From TrEMBL:
Residues 4-43 form a coiled coil. Gene3D superfamilies: 2-enoyl-CoA Hydratase, Chain A, domain 1. It comes from uncultured Sulfurovum sp. It comes from the Bacteria. This is Acetyl-coenzyme A carboxylase carboxyl transferase subunit alpha. The keyword Cell division does not apply. Acetyl-CoA carboxylase is a heterohexamer composed of biotin carboxyl carrier protein (AccB), biotin carboxylase (AccC) and two subunits each of ACCase subunit alpha (AccA) and ACCase subunit beta (AccD). Signal peptide: none annotated. It holds the Pfam family ACCA. It is found in: Cytoplasm. Residues 36-286 form the CoA carboxyltransferase C-terminal domain. Belongs to the AccA family. Its EC number is 2.1.3.15. The gene is accA. Pathway: Lipid metabolism; malonyl-CoA biosynthesis; malonyl-CoA from acetyl-CoA: step 1/1.
C-alpha cells in the first residue's frame, strides 16, 4: 500500500475516490476527480516548507538508485567489490546501456524493508563502497564510457570499522581522483544528499538535484542536536541549513534542478526515471562535443568556483 505523509492526506482522500470510481467504471466521476486531484496537488505541493521537502526526500515510497537503474538501463551488469576488502552493498555499480549509450551507473542504495535496509546499511557506505565506486569509474575511463552517479545517502557510515579502514581517506581520494577522470560524468541527487557521503560520488561535470531532494553538510536532526540540544527544532534547522535545490542553485552549488512530476517521484517512478535519463543523455551529448582538455578545464573551474565570493 502507498504511504501518505500528513500534508498528502487530501491527495490520498481524492485518490481513494478515484480508485473507487475506476472500480465502478464511472468515467464521468473519474474525469471530475482527476481535475480535483490536479488542483489539490498544485495547492499542496507548491506551498511546501523546507522540512516537508526533506520528508519527501526520505519518503519510503521514493524510488532508489536500483529502481532508476531498472527503469533506465538495458543489458545491465553489476560490478562487485573494491579488490581490497569486500563488496559494499550500500553502493551499486552497473554497466549497461541507456537508450543505446553505453553507461556506467553508480548509485547509493538505502534498501526497502528491514532485511534489505540492514543489507544496504541504510544507504550509508563504508570506505570499501567508495573504493568500489572509484574502481568502476576507472574502468569506465579505460573503455571511454560516460558515468552517471545517483546520490541518496544520509551520510557515510560513521562506525568504528569504517574509520579503521580509512573512511575519510576513501572519500578524499574520490574527490581528488574524480576531478581528472577523462570521461563525461553526471551526478544527480535523487533523494537525500548527506555530507561527505554524497560528495564522494558528487564530483562531476554536471551536478543536479531532483525537485524534492536535499543536500546538506549535516542532517537537520544532527544540526538541531548540536546547536540547540533540542530535537524539536528540526524544522528550524532544516530552514537554516538551506538544503533545498532552489537554495543551492541560487548559491551556485548545483548546476540544475530536475523537474520530477509535481506530485513527486514516489507517485510517478517511471516518469521521474525519464527525467533523469533525458538530463543525462542531453549533457553527455554536449560534453562529447568538447575535447578532453576542455572538459577537464570546465570541470575544474566548476569545482573551484564553489564557495567563491567577492566583496
Amino acid at each position: 500500500m502507498a504511504t501518505y505523509l500528513e500534508f498528502e492526506k487530501k491527495i490520498e482522500s481524492i485518490q481513494v475516490e478515484i480508485d473507487s470510481a475506476r472500480a465502478k467504471k464511472d468515467e464521468a466521476a473519474i474525469e471530475a476527480l482527476e481535475k480535483d486531484l490536479e488542483k489539490e496537488v498544485t495547492k499542496s505541493m507548491k506551498a511546501l516548507s523546507d522540512y516537508q521537502k526533506l520528508q519527501l526526500a526520505r519518503h519510503p515510497d521514493r524510488p532508489y538508485a536500483l529502481d532508476y537503474i531498472r527503469y533506465m538501463m538495458q543489458d545491465a551488469y553489476e560490478i562487485h567489490g573494491d579488490r581490497a576488502f569486500r563488496d559494499d552493498p550500500a553502493i551499486l555499480c552497473y554497466i549497461g546501456y541507456i537508450d543505446g549509450q553505453k553507461t556506467m551507473v553508480i548509485g547509493e542504495q538505502k534498501g526497502r524493508g528491514t532485511k534489505h535496509k540492514l543489507k544496504r546499511n541504510f544507504g550509508m557506505p563504508n570506505p570499501e563502497g567508495y573504493r568500489k565506486a572509484l574502481r568502476a569509474v576507472r574502468l569506465a575511463e579505460k573503455f571511454n564510457i560516460p558515468v552517471l552517479m545517483l546520490i541518496d545517502t544520509p551520510g557515510a557510515y560513521p562506525g568504528l570499522g569504517a574509520e579503521e579502514r580509512g573512511q575519510s581517506e576513501a572519500i578524499a581520494k574520490n574527490l581528488f581522483e574524480f576531478t581528472n577522470i577523462k570521461v563525461p560524468m553526471v551526478s544527480v541527487v535523487i533523494g537525500e544528499g548527506g555530507s561527505g557521503g554524497a560528495l564522494a560520488i558528487g564530483v562531476a561535470d554536471k551536478l543536479a538535484m531532483m525537485r524534492y531532494s536535499v543536500f546538506a553538510v549535516i542532517s537537520p536532526e544532527g544540526c538541531a542536536a548540536i546547536l540547540w540540544n533540542d530535537p524539536a527544532k528540526v524544522e528550524q534547522a532544516a530552514k537554516a541549513l538551506k538544503i533545498t535545490p532552489t537554495d543551492l542553485h541560487g548559491h551556485g552549488l548545483i548546476d540544475d534542478i530536475l523537474d520530477e512530476p509535481l506530485i513527486g517521484a514516489h507517485r510517478t517512478k517511471k516518469a521521474s526515471a525519464q527525467v533523469i535519463k533525458a538530463y543525462f543523455l542531453e549533457n553527455i551529448n554536449a560534453l562529447k562535443e568538447l575535447t578532453i582538455e576542455e572538459m577537464l578545464d570546465k570541470r575544474y573551474e566548476r569545482l573551484t568556483s564553489v564557495g567563491a565570493f567577492s566583496e
